[in-house]
Amino acid sequence: MTAHQRREQLLDVSRRLFAEKGFEQTSVEEIAARAEVSKPVVYEHFGGKEGIYAVIVDREVQALTGALSGALDEGGHPKVMVERSALALLDYIETSEDGFRILVRDSPVAQATGTFSSLIGDVATQVEHLLAAQFKKQHLDPRTAPIYAQMLVGMVALTGQHWLDARSPKKADVAAALVNLAWNGLSGMERRPRLTSAAPVKRRAAKGDTEAVGGLPKDGTPVE
Is 57 within 8 Å of 114 (Cβ atoms)? Predict the structure, then answer.
């Protein structure tokens, strides 16, 4: 086996282990045992499990970002772009199940980039520009595009996490449902959304103003 082949073998073995057990619960000993090599071989190629993890995450981030960026870069009607983006994520989950499980797990503290949240943030930034342009056409405030972009991308990502385990309904049906909610929600947006049924929040009494029992101020009047 060449050095390159050994390196790829270690990456494949580690990818499966990280997906099964997570970073913290996976040891260099397990990686070496699964690959049927000694621990020094793992250290020689990657310096430790942190090095292996970094390479794996980088590859997965590139794969998913490339798929989502490709869906957005093709242009076209905004609804079609939402459809392509939803399908791109579900396609990635379907073909790279281990990779997606690694991305959605908590990364080690030293891993500043490559986490699923940072990846979603990057995608949301791309979507933000599309929403801002669409908002202008609908006479909505384009300055609100960033928060709506986070909501939209987060909705798709969390649905993808659920579908990873459920695998029901079919991929096309999940994508259609996502687009139905996202697109029709965007189409019917109000210019100045307001809560209509939220109960008023009562002011908390200052510390020391209430009795130990009953929660009323010392003068007996209820807190407004």
Answer: yes
| 210: three-class secondary structure by DSSP | strand
Highest mean pLDDT among 29-33, 136-140, 177-181: 29-33
Question: How many whole angstroms separate alpha carbon 38 and alpha carbon 41?
Answer: 6
Cβ distance 62 to 41 under 8 Å?
A: no
Mean pLDDT of the chain: 84
CA dihedral 172, 176, 178, 184 (to 10 degrees): 170
Q: Which residue has the higher pLDDT, 173 or 133?
A: 173
Q: What is the rounded distance in angstroms from the CA atom of residue 125 to the CA atom of residue 199?
A: 34
What DSSP designation does 217 have? Answer: B
- Per the CB < 8 A criterion, the answer to whether 10 and 35 are in contact is yes
CATH number of 56-187: 1.10.357.10
pLDDT at 212 over 50: no
CB 173 within 8 Å of CB 86: no
**Host H or E run for residue 128:** helix 116-137
pLDDT of residue 137 exceeding 80, the answer is yes
> Where do the structural domains in the chain lie, given as residue ranges?
56-187
Which pTM value belongs to this model? 0.73
